[in-house]
């Protein structure tokens, strides 16, 4: 497959990473002020994540490293990987300034098993706006399967594919407007903004993304040599995915203001490498 989308998407993330690091929503200052501070995403994950002390973990598509640092603070020896040089620079700055050691690697996620040592990781952690940037979920699952040692586990907490099929421009009702299943052609979007509070004006605003159905994700993971050990769907998601229709609650989680039980907003899936 042509990787035409890589440069387009990377330009958008490179543009946004410094603004995200400066935004109160990613709370860099709290990580520096309090050595026990954890991101809201990881705090939400804790009941399903369990004890990660002593695990050798990798966070794929780690962005500016707030969740990666949080996992390291819980006792895992973490590596974070992302293809945005600007995001990796911010992640390294966070790790150095808050005193939590993490190794950060700049690479395309599809190259992760080439730039990291395969079959050595106890934990692959990913999600919250990660899988949607990848055209082929089966290829991604093969990379995860190659990184994990036998018995190692994959932890995904991600936006639900049903949520991603909803047309967010219809702000008075919930309307399925976009693909649910993975399709060869990308969803091409132009958005001058971002999902955190910032006054920054961005210049690279076009992105290419793809949805993957829940069955496609689970099947890809199974076919890549993992056993699915858990799948929980949640009525909340960590960003304002449907502006004008959602309310913010505990741990920075957003849910539909009107009958949130209508919609699976996000999910957590866990799998073990055979
Ligand atoms: C929404 S962020 C991830 C969110 C993360 N959970 C967080 O909030 O910190 C998506 C990240 O995926 C990265 N990304 C997108 N496509 C990628 C690819 N092909 N390889 C590696 N990283 C990629 C982007 O650079 C960005 O940092």
Give the percentage of residues in beta strands: 15-25%
How many angstroms separate the termini?
Answer: 29 Å
How many strand elements? 11
Query: Helical stretch count?
Result: 9
Which residues sit in consecutive blocks of at least 5 with pLDDT less than 50?
none
The largest pleated sheet is described as: 7 strands, mixed
The side-by-side strand order for the widest beta sheet comes to 3-2-1-4-5-11-8
Dominant shape: globular
Average of the residue pLDDT scores: 97
Helix and strand element order = HHHEHEHEHEHEHEEHEEEE
Ligand species: S-adenosylmethionine
> Rg to the nearest angstrom?
18 Å
Percentage of helical residues?
25-40%
Helix/strand class: alpha/beta
Q: Nutshell version of this structure?
A:
This protein is an alpha/beta fold. Helix content is 31%, strand content 24%. It is built from nine helices and eleven strands.
């Amino acid at each position: 497959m042509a990787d035409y989308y890589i440069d387009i998407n990377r330009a958008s993330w490179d543009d946004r990473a410094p603004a995200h690091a400066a935004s109160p929503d990613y709370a860099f200052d709290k990580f520096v002020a309090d050595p026990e501070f954890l991101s809201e995403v990881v705090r939400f994950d804790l009941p399903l994540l369990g004890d990660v002390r002593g695990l050798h973990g990798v966070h794929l598509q780690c962005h500016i490293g707030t969740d990666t640092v949080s996992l390291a603070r819980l006792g895992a020896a973490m590596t974070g990987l992302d293809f945005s040089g600007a995001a990796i620079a911010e992640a390294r700055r966070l790790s150095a300034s808050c005193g939590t050691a993490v190794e950060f690697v700049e690479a395309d996620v599809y190259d992760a098993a080439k730039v990291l040592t395969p079959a050595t990781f106890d934990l692959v952690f990913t999600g919250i706006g990660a899988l949607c940037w990848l055209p082929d979920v089966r290829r991604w699952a093969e990379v995860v399967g190659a990184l994990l040692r036998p018995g190692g586990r994959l932890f995904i907490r991600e936006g639900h594919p049903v949520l991603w099929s909803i047309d967010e421009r219809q702000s008075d009702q919930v309307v399925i407007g976009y693909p649910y299943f993975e399709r060869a052609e990308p969803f091409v979007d132009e958005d001058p903004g971002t999902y955190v509070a910032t006054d920054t004006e961005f210049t690279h605003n076009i992105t290419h993304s793809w949805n993957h159905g829940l069955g496609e994700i689970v099947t890809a993971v199974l076919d890549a040599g993992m056993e699915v050990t858990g799948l929980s769907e949640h009525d909340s998601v960590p960003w304002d995915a449907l502006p004008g229709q959602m309310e913010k609650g505990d741990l920075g989680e957003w849910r539909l203001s009107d009958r949130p039980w209508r919609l699976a907003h996000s999910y957590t899936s866990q799998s073990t490498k055979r």
